[in-house]
Amino acid sequence: MDLSLLAVAILVFITMNSWFQEAGVCCVNNQNFYQVKLKTLGISSYYNDTSCRSKLECSLHCLSRNLTCQHFLYDNVKKICLCGAELRSTGVKPSSGQRLYSQSTKYCDLALGYNSTIMKTFGLCLKIVKNYTNYTSANKSCSTMQGQLVMVKSNATKESLLTIMQDMNIVSAWVGIDDIQSEGTYVWADGSVLTPEEMIVYIPRQPDNFNNSQDCTVIMKQYRGLDDTFCTNNEMYLCEYNN
């Protein structure tokens, strides 16, 4: 065998293996599994466990047993593989060797009340809170559930939320953007500033800062977009899991 070709093959193998470990992505039969950071153990509905030598072998095993496998938990110390279909916090912290892999880049903690149906349908990990409260209290409430008020940075997200609101008979709800810190500078819940491209999610001619005192934002079903309003208003709210 040509030694130069062997050297290239070894280099490619090392490079691919390094990428695999760093990216935490298992690519199996065109199905991608992404490593998800675990706060607590996450698979509540699994159909078997077995011994596997690696996370790649674990993913192959899970897909061979069930092509609709959505998640697997692999313990690289004990070499144990759990295949699962549903994620739910158990309240138990994972050991140093346990890693969760999911076909979704978002982990939705059902134990905290986040909605699995919305996650499966829209890819949004949401909790719909129908209690009426002001913006500050809504923010604090989402934080206690390891989340934040939902960010509506695209028309696609806006349309998904409007569909959910229609189905759940919600007229308006708090979302995660305000200009409380600096008038006219709207900041999303993740700290990023509203861009001109994102203005499309607002109702036409909004935000208008009516009476110079509207600093918070709701999404309105009737007008199909975001609108600035008084932070002291009482509204339902939409929490988005922050993972």
TrEMBL record:
InterPro entries: C-type_lectin-like (IPR001304), C-type_lectin-like/link_sf (IPR016186), C-type_lectin_CS (IPR018378), Ca-Dep_Lectins_ImmuneDev (IPR050801), CTDL_fold (IPR016187), Pan_app (IPR003609). Residues 121-240 form the C-type lectin domain. Residues 27-105 form the Apple domain. This is C-type lectin domain-containing protein. Keywords: Disulfide bond, Signal. It comes from Biomphalaria glabrata (Bloodfluke planorb). SMART domains: CLECT. The keyword Protease does not apply. It comes from the Eukaryota. Residues 1-20 form the signal peptide.
